[in-house]
Design a protein that fits this description.
InterPro entries: K/Na/Ca-exchanger (IPR004481), NaCa_Exmemb (IPR004837), NCX_ion-bd_dom_sf (IPR044880). By secondary structure, the protein is an all-alpha fold. It has 12 helices and 4 strands, in the order αααβααβαααααβαβα. It has a single domain (2-318), classed as NCX, central ion-binding region (A middle domain of Talin 1, Up-down Bundle). It has helices at 2-32, 37-62, 66-91, 98-119, 122-125, 134-155, 172-204, 208-220, 222-233, 237-262, 271-290, 299-318, and strands spanning 94-95, 131-132, 265-266, 296-297. Strands 1-4 form a two-stranded antiparallel sheet.
């Protein structure tokens, strides 16, 4: 048990460090290929913050642990909105720009609702169990490609304003070395997390779903938490909220899509509560943006998010 806990922590360290090195090296290579800085931020950096979830879910899918796959995606998205945005809004009210208000936040809510539809369409899958099938995984990936095209189009708009992404210049050989090392950290870290999280769940008599919704999803959301808090401290609130919303879209369209394509994800009865909670979090974010004056997330709304998450966590662990 102690060894599994230590290996779980090592897995998270390798995961976060691997994602950081992957982004750093990939951004350097993209810069050498003359890719615009804004495109690097919207694709390479955004992908990097979701790389931990992707690594864990691919490993879980390959091991046939569909319960862990869905729990990690939903748990990360719920944590992103209720905790990360809750903490950030409490530290400093978050003003939301037009594109995020009218396109990205509604798109993240659409993604949450789409999971609900796909998870409950037993009649469409032609089976006795609710699941996200391989064909539905391809549908989610198609939505992800549309989202990437949208980001590239936004980057070409001369009126678009985006924060410059700091890119470390490396030699090509060094960039390639760190790229593969980062990938290795993601793969091995993801393997350690999945195998030891499942062992810990079995030891305590907990389900993979509960472990995935708590320890695993919170651990894989650390990059988003660090990025958003750093942005808020610098009063760059657009980055804070855009990072979370973009990550939630990545998690469902890319990560769940790819995972279910590898191995169909069976939906257990208890998971529907988590699917509903994910939809509620997305809906509340959309509604809170329009409450009060201006398009912003205020401190009291951030506190509300945190209280809702505390109640949800209490239910998972004790009820």
């Amino acid at each position: 048990m102690v060894l599994s806990s230590v290996l779980l922590v090592i897995g998270f360290v390798l995961l976060v460090y691997g994602a950081d090195k992957l982004v750093e090296s990939a951004s350097s290579i993209a810069l050498r290929l003359s890719i615009p800085n804004m495109v690097i931020g919207l694709t390479v950096v955004a992908f990097g913050t979701s790389a931990p979830e992707l690594s864990v879910n691919v490993m879980a899918a390959m091991e046939g642990s569909g319960e862990m796959v869905m729990a990690n995606v939903l748990g990360s998205n719920i944590f992103n909105v209720l905790v990360i945005l809750g903490v950030c809004a409490f530290v400093y009210p978050l003003t939301v720009k037009s594109n995020t208000t009218w396109i990205e936040i509604p798109l993240s809510l659409l993604a949450a609702l789409l999971v609900w539809i796909l998870a409950g369409d037993r009649w469409l899958d032609g089976g006795e169990s609710n699941l996200v099938s391989r064909s539905e995984g391809l549908v989610l990936i198609s939505f992800f490609l549309v989202f990437i095209v949208y980001n590239v189009m936004v980057s070409k708009n001369p009126e678009a304003q985006a924060e410059e992404v700091p890119v470390t210049e490396m030699k090509v050989s060094s960039a390639i070395f760190w790229l593969f090392l980062g990938l290795a950290g993601l793969v091995y870290g993801g393997h350690l997390i999945v195998s030891n999280a499942i062992f810990i769940a079995q030891t305590f008599g907990l389900s993979e779903r509960v472990i995935g919704l708590t320890i695993v999803s919170i651990g894989t959301s650390l990059p988003e938490l660090a990025t958003s808090l750093a942005a808020v401290r610098k009063k760059k609130v657009d980055i804070a909220i855009g990072n979370v919303v973009g990550s939630n879209i990545f998690n469902i369209f890319l990560i769940l899509g790819l995972s279910s394509t590898i191995f169909p994800v069976v939906i257990h009865d208890g998971t529907f509560l988590d699917i509903v909670m994910n939809c509620v979090a997305g809906l509340l974010l959309f509604l809170f943006i329009f409450s009060g004056k201006g398009r912003m997330l205020e401190r009291w709304e951030g506190i509300t998010f945190l209280l809702i998450y505390a109640g949800y966590l209490y239910y998972l662990l004790f009820l």
